[in-house]
UniProtKB/TrEMBL annotation:
Signal peptide: none annotated. InterPro entries: ClpP/crotonase-like_dom_sf, Enoyl-CoA_hydra/iso, Enoyl-CoA_hydra_C, PaaB1. It comes from the Bacteria. Pfam families: ECH_1. It comes from Neoaquamicrobium microcysteis. One of its GO terms (biological process) is phenylacetate catabolic process. This is 2-(1,2-epoxy-1,2-dihydrophenyl)acetyl-CoA isomerase.
Length: 262
């Protein structure tokens, strides 16, 4: 049997590929557990400065594997709250909380929780042929895996409600122009762009990237005054780093910086 997640270590970063292409990489329990293990291994690896998350085949991820939700097996009162608590919510928190940047390379359709897991990543690149679908309403559910949060935060209520209630497939280029993702790129350039970005992050001031994530995540819930305080505290920490000294020295000496992530 194929590995349901492929974890490929490159020089300074990792590529994690969801690998159930016959189901458009829909999540079953095995794929959740394998993805968790791959992320654990990246986190434990001092040399992993970035992650690229992508999908095998023509889709990125079609959300929950509905074959595992057959009502004739599941019965009348399935506890989907429990499955969110066990799998999807920890995954979203994990992606947000990682120190290293996570780049999502959306290679094809991203539906249901598959779309919202992409939005939980730090930088989302999508192939121009990809689409984002809040498929939930088609099966009588609400957006999860952070969907109601990402859509409302990035797009506002009007577009969030329309996407959630109509399950309209949002093309990658519209997702980019609406500010939901970073950019849409030619299909055949997707992985080259994603890995070039990962490589540049891995060779960059990785401690500063972690602090940047922390500051930007704090911004949503803060007033300007509170956010200025967050920046003061985190910039102080960045200012103590060797990377800051190296960055300024390299600038003054007109040479490339040699960052060490500390
Ligand atoms: O349950 C909980 O724990 C709560 C959490 C829920 C999170 C969720 O994500 S709920 C939402 C689940 N996802 C969906 O409802 C999406 C279902 N899929 C689709 O609507 C369509 O497949 C797509 C729009 C994504 C793509 O359409 P298309 O026409 O490009 O492909 P297709 O022919 O529909 O799919 C290709 C194959 O993948 C097909 O299998 P087959 O017929 O070739 O053997 C299809 O059944 C399979 N597939 C696609 N999505 C899923 C799936 N199989 C199982 N589960 C899927 N989600």
């Amino acid at each position: 049997m194929n590995d349901v997640v492929i974890h490929e270590r490159r020089d300074g970063y990792s590529i994690i590929t969801l690998n159930r292409p016959e189901r458009l990489n829909a999540f079953n329990e095995a794929q959740h557990l394998a993805l968790r293990a791959a992320i654990d291994s990246c986190e434990a690896d001092q040399d992993c400065g970035a992650i690229v998350l992508t999908g095998a085949g023509r889709g990125f991820c079609a959300g929950q594997d509905l074959a595992d939700r057959d009502p004739t097996i599941l019965g009348d009162s399935p506890d989907l709250g429990m499955t969110l608590e066990t799998y999807y919510n920890p995954l979203v928190r994990r992606l947000r909380g990682l120190q290293m940047p996570v780049i999502c390379a959306v290679n094809g359709v991203a539906a249901g929780a598959g779309a919202n897991i992409a939005f939980a990543c730090d930088i989302v690149l999508a192939a121009k042929s990809a689409k984002f679908i809040q498929a939930f309403s088609k099966i009588g559910l609400i957006p999860d895996a952070g969907g109601t949060y990402w859509l409302t935060k990035h797009l506002g209520e009007a577009r969030a409600k329309a996407l959630a209630m109509t399950a309209h497939p949002l093309p990658a280029e519209d997702a980019a122009s609406w500010g939901l993702i970073w950019k849409a790129v030619d299909d055949d350039a997707l992985m080259a762009e994603a890995t070039a970005l990962a490589e540049s992050f891995a060779n960059g001031p990785t401690r500063a990237f972690a602090l940047t994530k922390q500051a930007i995540h704090a911004a949503s819930g803060n007033s300007l005054e509170e956010q200025l305080e967050v920046e003061r505290a985190l910039q102080r920490e960045a200012g103590w780093s060797d990377d800051y000294k190296e960055g300024v020295a390299a600038f003054l000496q007109k040479r490339p910086a040699n960052y060490r992530g500390r």
